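Build the 3D complex.
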Amino acid sequence: MFKDLDPLLHSQLRLAIISLLISVESAEFTFIKEKTGATAGNLSVQIDKLSTAGYINVNKSFKGKMPLTTCIITKKGIKAFEDYVKSLQQYIKK
Amino acid sequence: MFKDLDPLLHSQLRLAIISLLISVESAEFTFIKEKTGATAGNLSVQIDKLSTAGYINVNKSFKGKMPLTTCIITKKGIKAFEDYVKSLQQYIKK
DNA sequence: GAATTAGGTTTATAATGTAAACTACTTTAC
DNA sequence: GTAAAGTAGTTTACATTATAAACCTAATTC
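Done.
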């Protein structure tokens, strides 16, 4: 009856991250932090989980001398998001 | 940017329960158990949380000699569900 | 050169979800 | 009639998850 919801995406912050990345295709850590309102610590952890799952790619470089973390969604991430939304529809359509 | 998602509804099982109750208006414990595939213990706990929040009303009676638990969604529950869905749209629209 | 800010990561704790174990009663089998 | 199995749940203990506080490294400001 109810399809399982990918637990990795069924989390407010991780869903917001993916939702952002779907539209922009590339985003800096601080940009995501501002948009989501998350604390840096929490964001760091959640980005790591999405990365470990292969849903996003994380690139660490330097902007001048400051560290710069950039995130890009992967095909796997896009697919997972689409599946998640599809499953979710079952729950929220009246 | 991203509205908060009611944590009480942002849970697969509780969302499934509310989703069911939205359409049927009254459902027995065992019916919900079958439809959601949840274990009785888990279902009992989650129904309790929804009830404590005032999202559903729980009625305990007897069918013949067996205990019978029936759930009905409240106006508050309907409102919460609608708000949740509305907030969620922000996350899942591309 | 001390304090503040930037850009994060690590870790400790709180909150949550879930299944296993249990209660209470009923029905069926012997 | 009583032992075994089934029904309808609840309680409790454990595992997972989420989150913020504390920390780190380096740069900037005063």
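Residues 29-30, 33, 40-41, 43-45, 48, 60, 66-69 of chain A lie near DNA strand C (CB under 10 Å from a C1').
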